[in-house]
Design goal:
Elements (H helix, E strand, L loop, with lengths): L16 E9 L7 E8 L13 E5 L6 E9 L1 E10 L8 E2 L2 E2 L3 E3 L12 H4 L1 E3 L2 E7 L5
Parallel strand pairs: 1-10
Antiparallel strand pairs: 1-4, 2-3, 2-5, 5-8, 5-9, 6-7
Length: about 140
């Protein structure tokens, strides 16, 4: 005998929320800030700009930066960060190559292109923690 369970009429299912704690390591110096974006699937990662669920400017202390975000809908996200050393709000490049340090969730290996969402996808459920190590090419 099968039993079907459903929500009571008039009762909405409460969305599950999570928190994400991000630690950024390998920062060369304390100049500027670390820019960060938490991007959901399907919004044009890595350039999700105004569609990010959360963004932040993190202060740098002792070669690291930390941020905690509460109230994020549970789900899969990609986290991107870069060391905005001159605080101009953008990742500076030379011929398409980042001049500032950058990194992504799951710390993918170097490729001559931005990673795909699936390569950096992070399941955020409950209290999730991740560490991202910056990569500098110059």
């Amino acid at each position: 005998m099968a039993v079907l369970l459903s929500a009571q009429p008039g009762q909405a299912e409460v969305p599950k929320v999570a928190s994400l704690e991000v630690t950024v390591t390998g920062i060369k110096n304390a100049k500027g800030v670390i820019q960060m974006a938490i991007c959901p699937a399907g919004v044009g990662f890595p350039d999700c700009k105004h569609k990010a669920v959360r963004t932040g400017k993190l202060t740098i202390q002792n070669g690291q930066a930390h941020a905690s975000f509460a109230g994020i809908p549970a789900g899969n996200y990609a986290v991107s960060v870069f060391h905005d050393a001159n605080s101009n709000g953008k990742l500076d490049t030379f011929a398409g190559i980042p001049k500032e340090g950058y990194g992504f969730s799951r710390n993918p290996g170097f490729k001559p292109r931005a990673p795909k969402f699936a390569e950096v996808e992070l399941a955020v459920q409950g209290n999730t923690q991740t560490t991202i190590k910056l990569r500098y090419l110059f």
